[in-house]
């Protein structure tokens, strides 16, 4: 830890008040790192909540039309949009590695090039993913959904196709700004759009029904993208955004691989818990099981907004420090963020365990469901606890550029070990939902242990060299080269 004071060279520190005349001590560095983590994590948490609330507000207001419309919007939001959202968010996470390390290395102009490359890749992916809403109806029928709900959800999914393209533009811009720790702007933009979306959605739904719901939600996502781009184009990002460039179309194959690896890594984690909902429907007294599982998953999804902020914070800190050549600071940041997450998630776990006989009443009055949720609270608390360590380590992996390796770890941990154990304990041993969830937790625990070992054994000095290789390609090694490739509209700048 002798060299952790090297992180004074990190650009983020310009945004935080630090007394450079005070003596450097371990606890002083711990406090400084804590401030830097929360500086990024706090607004990132709010941004996630505000943006996820757009679909939630629309779904809630759609209930005023009718139960069929509510079910259709909910199904589209959870399954169709949720699937595309996860893939796009994962692919956009490639920028957390590249932009973060370029920012730490001081190669500011490369951030704009990386942003444009990500746009090209994600917009291409959005074209392919358009097949999902187009064929949403047969897909939902294949999953055993009610025909009337599937038909309406299929129609609504087609109306929501523009949302996919907004995801493709939104997530790269978020990562571009996060890499520079410009997260407060993201939070304010998301908050402003959410405030605008509530009356807009109410008016459109009351006047045009489900078509109004789709129109208002698409419009709000368009507004998010426009405002974020306006901020990027402003003087606030003059060093990292210098206009469009033909260099955005170079090295797309390597960028595509990192984007796909990032998407696979995050989607495998997200889909792991979807197994609980699917298997719950196969158990005896399925309705009670599904209701109880849904309540627990909704709670976990809400609480996960906090670790999501830590993921952003640690990926930015690690990538920035590796790009700046500060190995000890990158390692120190990982363990500080893990410690912060442990404290916060342990507090949440204790809160729900203590109130295990009370909090379920916020969701239902059914005694059977109340009892089932209360019994599952121990597993819920275990999941919340694991979400303190595992997401931070995943964020570390993104910041260091380990997406490909962690994707393999996730396949083995979750699907080759955890899933078979879940099936065996849930059905063969007849332990029901507890057995299934327990098996899922085995996979999560194994993945956490492997990532801890990877973090502990990592040669961070070697990671710095790998970081230099990523950002020292033919384009990045000579930033002046990008001047010859700039263009606005169809005319080149010379």
What does this structure look like?
- This protein is mainly alpha-helical and 494 residues long.
- The chain folds into two domains: 42-250, no CATH class; 262-479, no CATH class.
- It is 77% helix and 1% strand.
- It has 18 helices and two strands.
- It has helices at residues 26-62, 67-92, 94-104, 108-129, 131-134, 136-142, 147-159, 161-179, 183-208, 210-233, 252-280, 286-303, 305-324, 327-354, 367-400, 403-428, 432-457, 460-471; strands at 487-488, 491-492.
- Strands 1-2 form a two-stranded antiparallel sheet.
- A hairpin with a 2-residue loop joins strand 1 (487-488) and strand 2.
- Helix 16 runs antiparallel to helix 17 (432-457).
- The radius of gyration is 23 Å and the shape is globular.
- Residues 1-9, 13-20 and 473-494 have low confidence and may be disordered.
Strand-helix topology:
Elements: H1 26-62, H2 67-92, H3 94-104, H4 108-129, H5 131-134, H6 136-142, H7 147-159, H8 161-179, H9 183-208, H10 210-233, H11 252-280, H12 286-303, H13 305-324, H14 327-354, H15 367-400, H16 403-428, H17 432-457, H18 460-471, E1 487-488, E2 491-492
Antiparallel strand pairs: 1-2
GO biological process, one term: xenobiotic detoxification by transmembrane export across the plasma membrane
GO molecular function, one term: antiporter activity
Pfam family, one: MatE
Taken together, the total number of domains comes to 2
Helix content: over 70%
User: How many helical elements?
Assistant: 18
Overall radius of gyration: 23 Å
> Which H/E pattern describes the elements?
HHHHHHHHHHHHHHHHHHEE
**β content, as a range?**
under 5%
Structural class category? mainly alpha
Cross-sheet strand order for the largest sheet: 1-2
Query: Low-confidence stretches at least 5 residues in length (pLDDT < 50)?
Result: 1-9, 13-20, 473-494
Subcellular location: Membrane
Main location: membrane
Membrane topology: Multi-pass membrane protein
GO biological process, one term: xenobiotic detoxification by transmembrane export across the plasma membrane
